Amino acid sequence: MNVLPYIETPNDLKVLTQPELSQLCSELRTTLVQTVSQTGGHLAPNLGVVELTVGAYRALNTPPDVMVFDVGHQSYVHKLLTGRQKEFHTLRTHGGLSGFPKISESEFDLYGTGHASDSLSVALGYVLARQGIHGIKQSSESFPQVVAMIGDGSLTGGMAWEALNHIGHTGANMTIILNDNEMSISENVGALTSYLGRIRLDRRYWGKREFVQRQLERRGGTAGRHLLDLGIRVRDSFKHLVVPGMVFEELGISYVGPINGHDIEQVETAVRMAKEVPEPIIIHAVTQKGRGYAPAETNPTLFHGVGAFDIQTGAVHSNPDAAPSYTQVFGEALVKEAEQDPRIVAITAAMPQGTGLDLFCERFGSQPGRFIDVGIAEEHAVGLASGLALGGKLPVVAIYSSFLQRAYDQIIGNVALQDAHVVFAIDRGGLVGEDGPTHHGVHDLSYLRTVPGMQILVPANEVELVDALHTALRLDGPVAVRYPRGSGRGLELPEQPSQWEYGKAIELKRAADKEVALLAVGRMVAPAQKASEILSEAGINASVVNMRWVKPLDEDYLLNVASKHKLIVTLEENTIRGGFGAGVMEFLASAGRATPVMQIGTPDAFSAQGTVNQLFEELGLDAQTIADKVTARLKPDSAPSSSSPPSSSRA
Ligand SMILES: Cc1ncc(C[n+]2csc(CCOP(=O)(O)OP(=O)(O)O)c2C)c(N)n1
Ligand SMILES: [Mg+2]
After folding, report:
1. Catalytic pick from 406, 428, 551, 629?
2. What residues are neighbours of ligand 2 (ion), with CB under 5 Å?
3. Residue 175 CA: distances (Å) to CA of 10, 200, 286
4. Where does the pLDDT of residue 138 fall: very low under 50, low under 70, confident under 90, or very high at 90 and above?
5. Cβ partners under 8 Å of residue 405, min gap 6
6. Does 110 or 311 have the greater pLDDT score?
7. Candidates 43, 68, 71, 76: which one to mutate for ligand 1, based on the most atoms within 8 Å of Cβ?
């Protein structure tokens, strides 16, 4: 008989026997593998936290106790234990369960996540809100427990350390589970990683840990003054004996561990104990990423976030006809550029594979200082790039659009204000698909456009990406090259890249009677071209322009277009607020031109998850809807009445 179907809330875990618990874990793993083999998703991180999640929930009373997941990519087990088994097959699909915790999805999802290193801040906020600044030193019997689960990769992020600093200061009654699998998406990096590695490796500590744990267990369970004493005594008396975790201890956070994160009993005991000690505790749990599914154990990086795959072989389904991705084209192009220019330094924030910089690492990794992985530390990556640039290097910082949001202050203050020549390679610009609203890169054109001196190049295909990168490396000051997730258009790449003319748009089609001009950037150029064909069948002549530069805009050309067309349509895979279209409107208004502008882009709302095609249709970014919107505007009587979905356009 299966156990999992009987688990409706985490409290149901408490009645299970040891054999039932192991069976449950194996059922959870089977469900994870089967579902993710169909939907794609974060498999290896979830396989690694099966016992950790079950053990923690056995020690908690949920609700009111709660768990906050860092990134939230490891929350599938939590979803399966909190009443979502029936919908689990819809994971990451349009209208289905999110691949991350989401407040609107379940009362058990305390917080909607997706970006790394924020769980400790959120958990502390929650603790202070619930317990009050003055209540936190009291027994946890009367206060619901908040447990934050954070990975060793996410602990490399600055925000996590800002929170630790504050948590130690407040002495808040909360528990942190450090899920240490020695991996970020790829191998984890940095001095902290070496530190955790030393703790893990030195077996002497494991024995001491058991001693400490026994002590705590024996005394735990008694509320009030005893516990308070215990909390203080534990820290003081064992400080010099229990060397592991001293970094945390010195910050005022009691350290327990390392424990075996695949031993439910150990996890449960540690969390229960932490619950009873009214001060911040960090439990260092060692786990194996991908545990229990051989292909994921062997290649946890591939199975970190994986597409649909064959369960037997572990082979990821791929379309043999698919063109190389923008990421790959960028990675190869940068290697070629760096062969020519030894000043080029490539920087990633824990995403060498995701950004294509793994190719750069393979080629130049042996040359000191040419490839730098800073960990999940986007702010530091950009600050570092600024110093490198001013010191004579030519840094290329490759970061996904949504994660670069973290580094906005550094872009302004450290790079632009210093006029440092830093090239931002912004991958995942636009809609990313199944990862949903936390990962859609639809704000960068807006947030970059307001930065003085920033130059923004938006290639429309992979050939243009190679040329845009080539151009960006030859400019001065801050430059961003922004391109989407996924395959290019299958174009043949030139032997030699060419340099774009500075700030110049490319006219792809000039309509004879100049009714409407479709001004597009990036991936929207293709649907703009197709829309112009649909429009011409409906008797509407549309000019089509690949604007290429969002900043500086080709102002001369815009003046020309405005004087010769009845309607201008701007098309971008970015929010209509403050992006490319807004820039066109601002310019035309300030130049005194009254030509109406219709903006097409993502709406001023968070867009859902789904395939990129589904989202394009839903948001009205596909060629047919673009054509329908233009027709409705120019020939209101002939337009189909039901053609316009929730509109992101306005004049
Ligand atoms: C700000 C930010 N940068 C990058 C990422 C991409 N990312 C998602 S998970 C992950 C690695 C997390 O490693 P860890 O916390 O150790 O969790 P594990 O997957 O090993 O369980 C990264 C880099 C992100 N989600 N947020
Ligand atoms: Mg990890």
Report:
1. 406
2. 151-153, 181, 183
3. 18, 20, 16
4. low
5. 443, 444, 447
6. 311
7. 71
The fold adopted by the segment(s) 326-482 is Rossmann fold (3.40.50)
Helix (H, G, I), strand (E, B) or coil at 419: coil
* Ligand 1 centroid, distance to 240 Cα (angstroms): 33
Q: What is the 609 CA–ligand 1 centroid distance (Å)?
A: 19
Looking at domain 506-634, its CATH class is: alpha beta
Kindly report the number of other CB atoms within 10 A of residue 54's CB atom: 23
| Model pTM score | 0.93
Which pLDDT score is estimated for 448? Answer: 98
Is the pLDDT at 45 greater than 80? The verdict is yes
Q: Among the atoms of ligand 1, which is closest to the Cα of residue 438?
A: 25
- Catalytic status, residue 378: yes
* CATH number, domain 4-286: 3.40.50.970
Can you give the pLDDT at residue 276? Answer: 84
Residue-range domain boundaries for the chain:
4-286, 326-482, 506-634
Burial class (CB in 10 A: 0-12, 13-18, 19+), 133: exposed
State yes or no: pLDDT of 143 exceeds 80: no
- Quickly count: other Cβ atoms within 10 Å of residue 327's Cβ: 28
- The C-alpha atoms of residue 345 and residue 326 are separated, in whole angstroms, by 20
Q: Same topology for domains 326-482 and 506-634, yes or no?
A: yes
CA nearest neighbour of 518 among 552, 568, 480: 568
Please tell me which residue in 29, 58, 84, 289 is annotated as part of the active site.
Answer: 289
Report the pLDDT value the prediction gives residue 240, as an integer from 0 to 100: 40
Ligand 1 centroid from CA 70, angstroms: 8
Quote the pLDDT of residue 512.
Answer: 79
Catalytic residue among 249, 279, 378, 434: 378
Task: Flag whether pLDDT at 102 surpasses 80.
Answer: yes
The CA 608 to ligand 1 mean position distance, Å, reads 21
Identify the nearest ligand to the CA of 150 by its number.
1
pLDDT for 581 beyond 70: yes
Tens of pLDDT, residue by residue over 381-395, are 999 999 999 999 999
Ligand 1 pocket, mutate which of 187, 376, 485 (most atoms under 8 A from CB): 376
Tokens at 432, concatenated:
């990313």
The number of beta carbons lying within 10 Å of the beta carbon of residue 237 is: 12
Dihedral (CA of 171, 111, 114, 196) sign: positive
Query: From edge to edge, which strands make up the β-sheet containing 455-457?
Result: 371-373, 344-348, 394-400, 423-427, 479-482, 455-457, 549-551
Cα 426 to ligand 1 centre (Å):
18
Residue 9, phi-psi category: left (phi > 0), alpha (psi -120 to 50), beta (remainder): beta
> What value does the mean pLDDT of the chain take?
91
Active site residue 485: no
